[in-house]
Write a structure and sequence with these properties.
This is NAD(P)/FAD-binding protein YdhS. With 665 residues, this protein is α/β, with parallel strands linked by helices. The protein folds into 3 domains: 3-203 and 545-659, FAD/NAD(P)-binding domain (3-Layer(bba) Sandwich), CATH 3.50.50; 208-297 and 510-538, FAD/NAD(P)-binding domain; 318-484, no CATH class. It has 18 helices and 23 strands. Helix 1 runs parallel beside helix 4, helix 1 crosses helix 17 (621-635) and helix 12 packs antiparallel against helix 15 (489-500).
């Protein structure tokens, strides 16, 4: 029987609350920071004991850990990355500002932050960093490690943090009981009052199609890689000169492209005209890439707005969202939401065009803005206004053309398709490397605003099932990622160099993969050409799916009924995400009841904020959720003395738990 040691029950001993945070990446450490920020305002004098549990380093976690290829980079500029709340964040807790990634690097450059513990390569990068640099993931790892260390150092004497380099396999404990957090490497659980699940992106078992492709590959001696986190992919089975199909043209493809070319010893040589020439090592395969759109994600800009930040949100802000949430009938995304979001995207675009490039328009911003505000999106009146005031069609925003750049195009030969794709990529890189096209960045600002303000509407579940699944989870997130989450421009320069070197070839739009005569065969709608190959890579990360998760903890929640997959009704549809209550992110069980001592947030859950860190000054949904959960944790009542004793009976022999008055830890 476990020995339970209690502190004396007198008023001179501050009470202690124990919290287990499962997942020590940016999301888990963000919650830790918010616990520290809210502790004194909500519970003055209380002692807090936090167990932070993750097999990967605290701060960076799995995705941003130092132990990955130094070739892999972020797709955000250093000045657009922060882990700190600022005055744009609308939350109840205190705002605790701090340096962005670029500001942190400047502090390290000037010696105000000690960078002596950084590895030489990262330290060299720190000293060469500017605000518009796209940093390596190793540099982001250093920033996130520093954020964690600063967070812990600033918690004060009333907070103790225990870091467990371990994996949680299950959590047990009733609604009025302490929670027992069982680890993979020890028989003694962590005993906590409250548990926060901050698991981040997770792997999934193969679906039916992927399983069939894997069996086919095994039978015929082929290589097949299902969707997975690309930095962890084992690519040793890909042979030099092998023809490889790659299905997916987003960031996962870019990572894999880097690892299979420069990662195998290839080099880039700058030319006098500003282009790159790829010098092969001889170890590269030949890559044939395609997707539904058939083009890579748009590259990130490397310049700033000429007219400053546009006044956003304008049409799709908190008031518009509150109005939509209050409607009795379900909300249709295409009819009621998208027109407002699109107007904000266009508002950002034209604000920058009219104010940053007044020589390219025929009226003032004030005149245009007044007329624009009174028009409905995508109507003859709005199109007429733009045609009258913006003479160059290249300056006009066409969201449909941006979404489907290859729609209606079919090339007679494979070579013509390659030439057209190279021209499209060249145009994209050029538009995002000169501020002559800074209206694109204004549209990007509108896109981010729309994304942030859609989050509370989606969380309130006021959208129809079809809207939520097809329009938001399908089209909108794909469109947002295509425009806003692309690679740095130099990656597309490298892609063009690889195309010229014959290493990368483009399959086009509508890519489909079949199995033919012991090989994989790919074809698309852009040309009649079929590509046969002996390897197929699914160049994308797996979608969260509770039913097929490979994570032992989520699997135990699903099988026990302590965690339930989200199911939308009318028509019935399972999203595969872990169901949480939209108001406070408590974990919901299969009976539909929210557990008062368990919270979950992040990628696998039904209330998703895509990024765990944020751009400064955008009122990040992730920061708001972190604050919401931290305050709910601190308000959670403690278990009664009797239930603590009962829980202690269940702990493995030999475990000694110490805690506050009447409570084991």
């Amino acid at each position: 029987m476990t020995e339970v040691v209690f502190f004396p029950g007198n008023e001179s001993v501050p009470p202690t609350q124990t919290v287990a945070i499962i997942g020590a990446g940016p999301r888990g450490t963000g919650v830790l920071e918010r616990l520290g920020a809210n502790l004194e305002p909500l519970a003055p004098g209380r002692r807090l004991e936090v167990h932070l549990i993750d097999p990967f380093p605290p701060g960076p976690g799995r995705v941003w850990r130092h132990a990955q290829s130094p070739l892999l980079r972020m797709n955000s500029m250093a000045e657009d990355v922060t882990m700190f709340t600022d005055d744009s964040v609308t939350c109840e807790g205190p705002i605790r500002p701090g340096p962005s990634l670029s500001e942190w690097a400047t502090l390290a450059q000037t010696g105000r932050i000690d960078g002596s513990a950084l590895c030489p390569h990262v330290l060299d990068e720190v000293h060469s960093l500017t605000g518009t640099t796209f940093p390596t993931r190793r540099l982001q790892s250093a920033y996130l490690t520093w954020f964690f260390e600063q967070t812990v150092a600033g918690l004060g004497d009333n907070v103790t943090v225990h870091v467990h380099k371990d994996t949680v396999v299950r959590v047990t404990g009733g609604e009025d009981e302490p929670q027992l957090v069982w680890l993979a490497t020890t028989s003694e659980p962590v005993v906590a009052d409250v548990v926060v699940f901050a698991l981040g992106h997770l792997d999934s078992a193969a679906d039916d199609e992927q399983s069939a492709l894997a069996r086919y590959a095994e039978k015929h001696g082929l290589f097949y890689l299902p969707p997975e986190y690309s930095a962890d992919s084992d690519l040793d089975g890909i042979q030099p000169g092998q023809d490889v199909l790659m299905r997916g043209f987003g960031l996962a493809f870019i990572d894999l492209m880097v690892l299979l070319t420069e990662g195998r010893g290839g080099k880039y040589r700058p030319e006098a005209d500003g282009t790159l020439t790829y010098l092969p090592s001889g170890e590269e395969p030949r890559l044939f890439v395609g997707s539904r759109r058939g083009v890579p994600y748009h590259s990130k800009t490397n310049y700033r707005l000429l007219a400053g930040r546009p006044p956003l949100p304008r049409f799709f802000g908190p008031d518009a969202v509150a109005h939509l949430v209050s409607q009795h009938a379900p909300v249709d995304f295409r009819s009621h939401v998208w027109p407002l979001m699109a107007k904000d995207i266009a508002w950002g675009h034209y604000h920058e065009l009219f104010n940053g490039h007044p020589d390219r328009v025929l009226v003032t911003w004030a005149e245009f803005a007044e007329r624009f505000a009174g028009l409905t999106w995508d109507t003859d009146g709005m199109r007429a206004l733009v045609a009258e005031t913006v003479p160059d069609a290249d300056d006009r925003l066409d969201l449909s053309a941006l979404d489907h750049p290859l729609q209606g195009l079919r090339f007679e030969t494979f070579g013509e398709l390659q030439d057209h794709l190279c021209a499209l990529i060249r145009e994209d890189v050029d538009r995002r490397s000169t501020d002559q096209h800074s209206a694109d960045l204004g549209a990007f600002a509108g896109l981010l605003s729309a994304f942030v303000n859609l989050a509370p509407l989606a969380a309130a579940r006021r959208l129809t099932t079809i809207s939520y699944v097809r329009d938001v989870g399908g089209w909108w997130l794909g469109f947002f990622s295509f425009l806003a989450s692309g690679p740095p421009g130099h990656r597309l320069e490298e892609l063009l160099a690889l195309s010229r070197a014959g290493i990368v070839h483009f399959v086009g739009a509508g890519m489909r993969v079949d199995t033919v005569d012991g090989q994989f065969a790919a074809h698309g709608s852009s040309s009649p050409h079929t590509v046969r190959a002996t390897a197929l890579i699914e160049a994308r990360i797996p979608k969260p799916t509770l039913e097929r998760t490979t994570n032992d903890l989520l699997r135990s929640l699903y099988e026990s009924g302590d965690g339930a997959p989200e199911v939308l009704l009318e028509p019935r549809h399972g999203t595969g995400q872990l169901l949480v209550s939209p108001t406070d992110l408590r974990l919901v069980n299969s009976a539909g009841r929210a557990h008062p001592r368990r919270f979950a947030l992040g990628a696998p859950t039904s209330v998703v904020a895509v990024a765990a860190f944020s751009r400064p000054k955008v009122n990040s949904p992730a920061f708001r959720q972190n604050d919401l959960v931290a305050r709910a944790v601190l308000r959670t009542p403690w278990p009664a003395r009797s239930t603590c004793a009962a829980a202690a009976e269940d702990v493995s022999p030999g475990h000694t738990a110490r805690g506050g008055p009447g409570r084991p830890r």
